[in-house]
Amino acid sequence: MDYAHCFAREGSMQLIQAVATFILTVGCAPGAVAAPAASPRAPIQAKTYTYEVLHSFGQSPGDGQYPFDELIRSDDGNFYGAAYGGGTGVTPGTSRCEDTGTDNCGMVFRWSQAGEFSVGNFPIFSPATLFPMDAVSSSLVAGPDGRLFGTLLSQFGGVYQVGKDGSLSPVFSFDGLSTWSPLGSLALSADGSIYGVTADGGAYTRGVAFKIDPQGKYSTIYQFGSKDTDPVAIETGLIMGPDGNLYGTSRAGGTLGEAGVGTVFRLTTAGKLTVIHTFDILTDGEIPGRLTIGPDGNIYGFTIETANGSAATLFRVTTSGRFKIIASNLPPGPMGRPTISADGVIYGAANSPSSCGSVFKIKRGRVTYMHSFECAPSADGRFPSGGLWLDSDGYLYGLTQRGGTADFGAIYRIHQ
Q1: Are 126 and 173 in contact (CB under 8 A)?
Q2: Each residue's pLDDT tens digit, 201-252
Q3: Is 282 exposed, middle or buried (0-12, 13-18, 19+ CB in 10 A)?
Q4: d(CA 332, CA 23)
Q5: SS3 370
Q6: What is the pLDDT of residue 375?
Q7: CA distances from 317 to 71, 190, 341 (A)
Q8: Which of 136, 25, 10, 8 is nearest to 81 (CA)?
Q9: 278-313 pLDDT per residue, tens
Q10: Residue 262 and residue 254: Cα distance in Å, rounded?
Q11: How many Å apart are CA 301 and CA 288, to the nearest integer?
């Protein structure tokens, strides 16, 4: 095995693990009110879909554990992803990387369709603090020049890049004085600027939105909490919209303030923020996840569940804020962003509180289950960890947090 990247462990891993644990265990709050009426077209499984596990994590020393979020295919033809466990020096079969007493916890991996899998070492992220890199806190995103970017949580957090040759290097390290803990996906503009959000810090201790220009200069473009209606708890990051503005979701905020159940917001690159939709638990669902841009130029996302925890929703919102529920009978706990084909079919993966996960698709409002994961430890994955990658070969590629041969997660694919 050739090595390409490994992160080291520190206490801030607890934050990202807490987020993952919340997603896996989200359920119905006591006293919850009735959910919006479900679509009369119930989920079906009309045909058999071809499913296969391509790689099981944790099978050898240095292999990753608990892959995080989703895969991305680079222009070099390989798939890349991140895991918040494992790495060089980790003993196979241990329940978590810290069980070995080593400073190896988290890595970026590369996988080819020929079945080649590699991980490797990463340099000290911030020499000034003598803290090594820690838990990954976002999936990777592709820049216009083919480089990949992601965020991590170490002492204060940072942004890193994967070069076109597979090499890794730091882009920016947060100092913990004004803000820290970058969380969620980054957004990249055509000029190479990087945009993201932090979970903590800022003038109002609610985090900030930041920019890193192509020369590596950092600037804060928005301080969350400056208005009563600001988004609260922004955990999914940002995307770049077709209009050149940034879009994101939050778990609370908007017109309901901290009592709210989520928002969709627009943020200009100059720093003007507008909440374009505040979620109503009775009609919309609650806790919106990551967003994606559809082929129609509109913005799509899942909510984790409806009021009684029995189902989730798929929503569409225009850049001007026109909001619509597309489907309301999804399995609760969708992970990651919706994946949308050129002909408008929408795919997702979910972690239901009552099951070990499923892959589903939505076509003209009808939900079809494509695969249900086994709960018992097996070579089949369980607990899908994020969204899906729809490749030109007609397959959907995804990750599970558990399952596989060693029960440390798996890479899988399913034909659409």
Answers
A1: yes
A2: 889 989 999 999 999 999 999 999 989 899 999 989 999 999 999 999 998 8
A3: middle
A4: 10
A5: strand
A6: 86
A7: 25, 23, 18
A8: 136
A9: 999 888 988 999 999 999 999 999 998 776 666 789
A10: 7
A11: 7
pLDDT, residue 348, reads 95
DSSP letters spanning 218-232: EEEEEETTSSTTSEE
What is the distance in angstroms between the CA of the first residue and the CA of the last residue of the chain? 32
**Could you give the CA distance from residue 169 to residue 379 in angstroms, rounded to a whole number?**
34
Contact by Cβ (8 Å): 155, 131: yes
263: exposed, middle or buried (C-beta count within 10 Å: 0-12, 13-18, 19+)?
buried
Strand arrangement of the beta sheet that strand 299-305 belongs to: 286-293, 299-305, 312-317, 323-330
The whole-angstrom separation of Cα 7 and Cα 168 is: 11
Instruction: Give, in order, the Cα–Cα distances in Å from 234 to each of 21, 184, 188.
Output: 17, 8, 18
Whether 73 contacts 67, CB under 8 Å = no
| CA proximity to 168, closest of 3, 1, 57 | 3
Distance separating alpha carbons of residues 330 and 126, to the nearest angstrom: 43
Task: Write down the pLDDT at residue 95.
Answer: 40
Is the whole-model pTM more than 0.85? no
Question: In 3D, which of 294, 286, 302 has the Cα closest to residue 387?
Answer: 302
In this structure, are residues 83 and 57 in contact, taking their beta carbons and an 8 Å threshold? yes
Round to whole Å and give the CA distance between 241 and 32. 34
Task: Please give the Cα distance from 19 to 22 (Å, whole number).
Answer: 5
Sole residue written with tokens 């909440």: 275
* Contact between 329 and 35 (Cβ < 8 Å): no
The per-type count for the chain, helices as H runs and strands as E runs, is: 1, 33
Distance CA 70, CA 350 (A): 13
22 vs 194, more confident: 194
Choose the most confident range, by mean pLDDT, from 103-117, 178-192, 301-315: 178-192
* Mean pLDDT over each residue of the chain, to the nearest integer: 79
